[in-house]
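Give me structure tokens for this 252-residue protein.
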Amino acid sequence: MTTILAPYHQGERLADAEIPVHADVTVTAEFPAGADLWQQAAVTCAAIAEPVAAAVRGGRVPVVFSGDCLLAGGTVAGAQRAGRDPGVVWFDAHGDVHTLETSTSGYLGGMSLRVLTGAHPERYADAFGLRPVAPERAVLADARDLDPAEAEYLAGSATRRIPVAEVDTDTVPAGDLVIHVDADVIDAGELPGLRYPVPGGPSTEAVLDACARLVATGRVVAIHVACPWLPTGDRAEREIRDRLVSRFAAGL
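Here you go.
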């Protein structure tokens, strides 16, 4: 495994200790003057893609930690640069399938999976060389908190939505895979301090077990873990985060 840290959330550089991992590579993004959030995301994704591609070319599975689901595109782009064509298994409490037209908040993180599968390419994929993943090559695991526009889109989309417990070799796309895990897929009662907590989700072990089932196939070429939690000085919260991050960094 190669551990890559991209300590950014919506263009904000996070404190070094906010994602508690001893990284092999720490990504630095240098934003042009006046860059908007889309441009900042593209710069960060491009910076992520290079070490991901190097790891995949070397036969290693990179595990990328960031503060933002939008940066998963950099992980996928890196696998593509290494000659892979992965499908995506997207673990998230939310749908992340909004567009600029459907979002009521304008929060770009809520569009992360949709732009990965081809929406707004001029603002996202084209800006850092991502080939959008075909919607049928993406599976959304959990997504228990959907806005009406997201539910309507998924009802007619080739992107399938399944419970975490059903994630297995026969319910995910064939061939190479990138796993994306937004930590908020885990029940908010087990993982306090999240920016956008959602109760009623799967346990930490259920999510880790689902990921482990996929890793065991040998088809996972990269993993992206988004850690959208708030800074905390609470010792118990930090220990929970440490354990979660260490499991992913160790390959589960």
